[in-house]
Write a structure and sequence with these properties.
The structure is a single chain. By secondary structure, the chain is of the alpha+beta class. It has one domain. Helices cover 22% and strands 37% of the residues. The chain has two helices and 15 strands. Strands 5-8-12-11-7-6-9 form a seven-stranded antiparallel β-sheet, with no helix packed on it. Helix 1 packs parallel to helix 2.
């Protein structure tokens, strides 16, 4: 994968997350109507797309995570990578950085069969999930509901060599306004070309600008 394409992929994920967070922040802002104060539910959804990009496999994640209904656990410095047999994937920088582990998710117990394979490189924030243990991982200083963006690359790999079974896998937690989802989309199809990605980034930024202009 070229550096230009990886940059565009990361920019797209970051732009999407920023726009989604702006819309969410506007939706949850306190409204006063006739003396009644209401606070609409905050969307909590983090999506990781795992796909084949040329000779490599790339993971791109973005969204928000509401940790209110999750049980606080412990701090960890686990490596980024994936273990399909345990429904586990951690994306982000390959350097060991401190993360916060929360318990209380339910969902698929695997998305393949292979043991752990570490990521070759990564960026953004450290985010992960382990379906077998029912835990989710976020940055140690993470504020519940704030935007997250994370990427990882496995050089010279395919979904098959990593033991990943293509499909969509969803884990859930919480209830009511504190409900959340973590979705893994394992796809064999290639992503859009850099020019298309650039246009998508500009489009998403335009949507965010329009939203802010309407609120002003």
């Amino acid at each position: 994968m070229t550096r230009e394409r990886l940059f565009l992929l990361a920019s797209l994920a970051a732009a999407f997350t920023t726009v989604a967070w702006s819309v969410s922040a506007s939706a949850v802002a306190t409204q006063e109507r006739g003396g009644t104060r209401t606070e609409p539910a905050q969307d909590s959804s983090f999506v990781v797309t795992l796909l084949q990009e040329g000779p490599n496999v790339v993971a791109i994640g973005s969204g928000t995570i509401n940790t209110t209904d999750l049980l606080p656990g412990f701090l960890s410095t686990s490596s980024t990578g994936l273990t399909p047999g345990d429904a586990a994937i951690i994306t982000g920088p390959t350097s060991l950085t401190l993360s916060s582990i929360h318990d209380g998710i339910t969902g698929p117990m695997n998305f393949g069969s292979r043991i752990f394979t570490s990521a070759s490189s990564g960026g953004g924030m450290r985010v992960g999930i382990d379906g077998i243990d029912g835990i989710i991982e976020v940055p140690s200083d993470y504020d519940s509901g704030s935007p997250l963006m994370s990427t990882s690359t496995w050089d010279g790999a395919t979904l098959s060599s990593l033991g990943v079974t293509p499909g969509t896998y969803v884990w859930t937690w919480g209830s009511g306004v504190n409900a959340g989802t973590f979705t893994l989309k394992a796809e064999e199809a290639a992503v859009a070309e850099p020019a298309t990605l650039g246009l998508m980034v500009l489009g998403l930024l335009g949507v965010g600008f329009s939203g802010r202009k309407r609120r002003n």
